[in-house]
Design brief:
This protein has about 150 residues and is an alpha+beta fold. It has four helices and seven strands, in the order E-H-E-E-E-E-E-E-H-H-H. The chain has a seven-stranded antiparallel β-sheet.
Length: about 150
Amino acid sequence: MGTIGGSASTEIEAHIDVVFEVAADGEGATRWQTEIDVAECIERDADGNQLVVRMETETSIKRLRSTLRYSYEEPHRVSWAQEDGDLKSVEGSWELENLGDGRTRVTYSLEADPGRILGLAIRGPVVGVLRGRMVDSMPDKLKAFVEGSA
């Protein structure tokens, strides 16, 4: 079993700064990503940006724990990489593009390597289901939250 990942995009009817604020809030992800049970910021920089966030995510296979380190290129990019956790590796990002007229294109990218042991349980059609939950649905979840909060 290799990595699970890919990218997906959508357009959001909101200014890029508003979208960036939500995408950059790892600790607040539980408000719009129902699969995340715990998101706790454990380290911030001098400006209050979340640098390290501990997360616990419920999956059909097992509860996954992960400690993610965030980096920011405001207002165009939020990225993260796993420092510690149940998966072998996780890297992801939100890319934001200002389309003008208060619209933003977002692209979510994720590459997750479950490792050898967990990878044995993730085979065949399960890979497609996980990709749908972990990648394909994310831009629409962000869109629904941002547009519903506006």
